[in-house]
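During the second year of the project, the team shifted from modelling isolated chains to modelling whole assemblies. The rationale, set out in the original proposal, was that interfaces cannot be judged from single-chain predictions alone. As a representative example for this report, we include one of the complexes processed in the last quarter. Its constituent sequences, exactly as entered into the pipeline, are reproduced here:
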Amino acid sequence: MTQLLLNIDLSLIDWSRAQFALTAMFHWIFVPLTLGILFIIAIMETVYVKTGNPEWKRITKFWMKLFAINFAIGVATGIILEFEFGTNWSNYSWFVGDIFGAPLAIEGIMAFFMETIFIAVMFFGWNKVSKKFHLASTWLTAVGANLSALWILVANAWMQYPAGMFFNPDTARNEMLNFWEVLLSPVAVNKFLHTVTSGYTLAAIFVIGVSSYFLLRKRETLLAKRSIVIASVFGFISVMALIFTGHGSAVQVATHQPMKLAAMEGLYEGGQEAELIGIAILNPKKAVDNDEDPFLFKIGFKGVLSFLIDFDTKTYVPGITDIVYGDEENQILPTSERIAKGKIAMNALIAYKEFKAQGNTEDAKVQYDILMDNFEHFGYSYVKDPKDIVPHVPIVFYSFHIMVIFGTMFVLVFLIFAWLTIRNKLENFKFAKILYIIGIACVPMAYIASEAGWVVAEVGRQPWVIQDLMTVDAGVTNIATGAVQTTFWIFAFIFTGLLIAEVSIMLRFIKDGPAKPENEGGKQL
Amino acid sequence: MEYLKEIISLVSLPVMIYVSYRLVLLALKYFEKNIEKQNN
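Output from the structure prediction step:
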């Protein structure tokens, strides 16, 4: 593999990385709305089944159509993403396919089957199956979509925190040792909960935004207000859960990926009473090997970062410099030492295979023990310079703060909309028009916050494709750079076309509004 | 139980959705009542 690395064109790595990032980011435009709006639709349909009021069927059908447009394009981009593991990241797939493949396969078999079967009933089953069966199908589609997210997020979490595995030196592959350890790793559970609740929050903001448009235009006001009542209550609970799980994720990051946490906070010099940055401008001249001040301007809260991680302001939080150059007092090995140990592990693996081929089991056993003693540093054998383990700090820092600021703002948005709408004071509110515009403006902000979250997760763990085990450049497929460049532009062109198509279809559909009301009827809630 | 904390965390998700659903119903009830009150 080391020889292979020497032959790889660096621009190939960047283009492969860019292609995967492009596909993932386009895919993530469609996924969160799917995850959340399905539950909102299911609640609306439940109200319809409980009351028998056809107005609720009309509301359900309206949001269902918006969901359908979004869902179709989301699936298309998701499938490409899974294929890219094989086409662009075959070394990575070889190294961890025995573990990574399992959750992806379960996702395909279990979740997609469930989702696609019930989605057909949901769209085409009106008046063909009983109301209750249709309702059950809607709920099961929502559950299926979320289960699908669970498995792919388990796979992603494993890359951030490889658990439940064993490295087989004979095949040079990682093999699954304990399925439950992979599925129920604290990183996986937190990642799943944080990601799906972000989807619920985004979907609730989407419903409020579209409903605000109707209220601004004084059209379908009752439908809009009913939708806002549901979305604001559902959204408020979701965003609270989002903050709670966000804290859980940060604790996991602090434990397993301290470099990512340091980049999120622009923390170069660690220590006790670590500062939580509220808002700041980073100093572009700052690097790990100079003494420049990390910030040009900042508003920070001393000790809060330490407290959030361990409920103790005295908790030590390592900074970027501490991780790169080591901190003896806090038992952090310098990266140079980890690189040396990683090379020992890699050389032991090579020697082990040679002795094994010669039938020299005794020396092979010695090399195996050396390999296992140093295996936690194995990935560092791919690192050339200790400074290479620092991710792009400004991207991680600003993405994290955008996500947090927008997320916190949504708490207020849900509260204001819920308070005014439930009391039916929204239209008479003095600043109603401004509030509607804020509601609409929150839609792109929710998408930005959601994408920013993934940027933090993925850029923050660079250069690792699997934390401490394999760097991104070691995972890439050695194919012609031109081939990756060509497909990059083809995908960029197609995805942009799909996005424009989706947005324009959605806007046209929203502009046309929901179907005309059927005869009123039904009972009170 | 080794994974008790994680299992409880996962189970909390459907519980959260159920609580949201009950609160939504409650909110809708007040909303419809307020509309009725204001129409009269």
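Chain A has two domains: 31-257+392-424+435-471+510-519, 258-390. Residues 10-51 of chain A form the longest helix (42 residues).
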